[in-house]
Amino acid sequence: MQFEMTATVFSVNKITVEGRTFCSMFTGQNPVGDNAENTLGLEVTKISAEPAVFDQLKTEGFRPGQEIKLVAMLKKAANGKSQPHIVGVVPSQKTAPTPEPQKKPA
Predict the structure, then answer these.
(1) Phi, psi (5° rounding) for residue 57?
(2) CB of 9 within 8 A of CB of 38?
(3) Which one of 9, 25, 27, 77 has the fewest beta carbons within 10 angstroms of its own beta carbon?
(4) Where do the segments described as Disordered lie (predicted)?
């Protein structure tokens, strides 16, 4: 099951090891719950991603610190927990400029 999430993305790394390509991103969010009292600044999280995410963000003109809508799915993690895995980027909603209305001659 896929879902959308918005995250402040600081960096995206792509690396190839023994012919396999891996990708990860570092995101930040405001602390919530018990951590809010003991955290100054943002909570930084490393999230795994598909290598295509790196290419998508490069094409979109990614800048560190941008809020980006991501497409994620949950993957199994240690101790029966789950964690997000980024599978894509929601394309930017850039709209074409609206033409100005034509003025009627007087």
Answers:
(1) -65, -35
(2) no
(3) 77
(4) 82-106
Distance in angstroms (rounded) separating the CA atoms of residues 7 and 4: 10
Which domains does the chain carry? 2-89 (2.40.50)
Other Cβ atoms less than 10 A from the Cβ of 50: the count is 17
**How confident is the prediction along the chain (106 residues), in pLDDT tens digits per residue?**
899 999 999 999 999 999 999 999 999 998 888 878 888 999 999 999 999 999 999 998 999 999 999 999 999 988 999 999 999 999 875 544 445 556 666 5
**The tokens of 36 are what?**
């809010």
Tokens 């602390």: give the residue.
31
List Cα–Cα distances, 78 to 2, 26, 36, 65, 83, in angstroms: 20, 20, 25, 29, 9
Taking the model in full, what pTM does it have?
A: 0.78
CA dihedral of 69, 73, 75, 79, whole degrees rounded to 10: 70
